Amino acid sequence: MAAHNVARGARCGPSLIKEIVYGISLSLMAGYLWKLMHHWNIRRKYKEFYDLLERGEISVVAGGR
C-alpha cells in the first residue's frame, strides 16, 4: 500500500502554487541577506572613518560655496 502512494506521488507534476511560494520565499530571503550585508558594509566604512578621525590620521575641512 505504501508503494502505491509513492508511485502516485511520483506521477504528479510540480504544483504551480508551491513553485510560486518557494520562489517568492527564496527571493525574499536573498533580498534580506543582501540588504543586511549592505548595511554591515556601510556601518564598517563609517566606523573606519571615525576611527581614523579620532586617531588624527585624517582631517575634515568644511568647504562652502
From TrEMBL:
It comes from the Eukaryota. It is found in: Mitochondrion inner membrane. The chain crosses the membrane at residues 20-37. Keywords: Membrane, Mitochondrion, Mitochondrion inner membrane, Transmembrane, Transmembrane helix. InterPro entries: COX5C. GO terms for cellular component: mitochondrial inner membrane. Its main location: mitochondrion. This protein is one of the nuclear-coded polypeptide chains of cytochrome c oxidase, the terminal oxidase in mitochondrial electron transport. Belongs to the cytochrome c oxidase subunit 5C family. This is Cytochrome c oxidase subunit 5C.
